[in-house]
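Record Complex 1 LYR protein domain-containing protein, 86 aa.
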Amino acid sequence: MVANAGLRAYREVLRLVRRLPADARPYYAKYARENFVNYRHLSPDDDLPALLRRAYAHSSWVLSKYSIDADTAAGRLKEVCGAEGG
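=>
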């Protein structure tokens, strides 16, 4: 896992937010930012891969909530997060 995986995951999550209905975008963009900011000071002992898998799983859930095919839409996020399914 590369050192900037968290930043790459955040970028992909924001790209996915743009696929949501316009009225839902501000909420999920703010939610994503708050969550990534909360974890920006991870130590080497923290489990970054687990947090990234959680980000993928949550993003997939939100996409499916709005009837967006998560498998297609979140492919790049899945690669960044190293997730094995949703």
